[in-house]
Amino acid sequence: MSAEHHLSGFHAVTARLxxxxxxxxxxxxxxxxxxxxxxxxxxxxxxxxxxVHAVDDDRLAALAGTDRHQGIVAVVDATAPGRTLEEILDGxxxxxxxxxxxxxxxxxxxxxxxxxxxxxxxxxxxxxKDRAAGLNATVxxxxxxxxxxxxxxxxxxxxxALAELKExxxxxxxxxxxxxxxxxxxxxxxxxxxxxxxxxxxxxxxRESCDRVVTIPMQGEVESLxxxxxxxxxxxxxxxxxxxxxxP
Length: 248
Prior knowledge:
Blueprint: E1 4-8, H1 10-19, E2 24-30, H2 36-47, E3 52-55, H3 57-64, E4 72-77, H4 85-90, E5 97-102, H5 107-119, E6 124-128, H6 137-143, E7 152-155, H7 158-167, E8 171-181, E9 191-196, H8 204-209, E10 212-215, H9 227-246
Parallel strand pairs: 2-3, 5-6, 5-9, 6-7, 8-9, 8-10
Antiparallel strand pairs: 1-4, 2-4
C-alpha cells in the first residue's frame, strides 16, 4: 500500500479537494458538525467521488495527531511526485519569484511561509532536505490551504540549488541585517529571496551564495521578525515594486 498522510482543518482539506481530488482517499467529519461549511465540504468530497465518514472526536484526534482539527480530517496520498526547480522555472510565464528557506525547522513557520508565498504569488518554496521542516499535517494546517497550491521543493544541496538558479538568470537575494534597505533595493527581474531561521539567520555558505543582501528597515525596538513575517514583507515589496513598474 502506498504512503499516506493526514490533513486537518477546513482550508487544507478543501484546497486538496480542489487541487488534487484524486489523491484524497477519504474524508472524516465530526458526527456533531452539521453547519453549512461542513455540508459544503462534504458535498465537494462526494462530488469528487471521495468517501466521507462521520466519526467521533476521539477518532478525529487520533487521525490528525492533535485535537485542533476543526472537525475535519482527510487521508491523502503522500506519494504524488513533487516538482523540480527545473520544471517550475520552465513553466513560468513571468519573472521568477521564489522563496528559499535556510534552516527553518519549525513546521508552523514553514506553513506560515507557504501561506505568505501563496498570498504574494511566489511560484515555489525551496528548502534543504536536511536540518529543515518537511511537509506534514502540522505544516499543512498552518498553511491554511497553501500547502496544496505552492510547490515545496526539497533539495539535497542548497548551495548547489542556488548556483543552478543563478545559471537560469535568477538573482539570489538574501534577507539579513547589514544589507541595503528594502525601500531602496531594485527588485525587478527574476528573484529568489533567501531567508534563514529567526535568530540563526543565513548560514555562511548560503550568505556567500547571495548576489545581494537586503535588510528590512525596522522602526521599533525589536531586532528581528519571525521568518514568515519577514518572508511576507519581502514578497509583498517585490510584488508592489513590479506593479508600480508596470503602471503607465
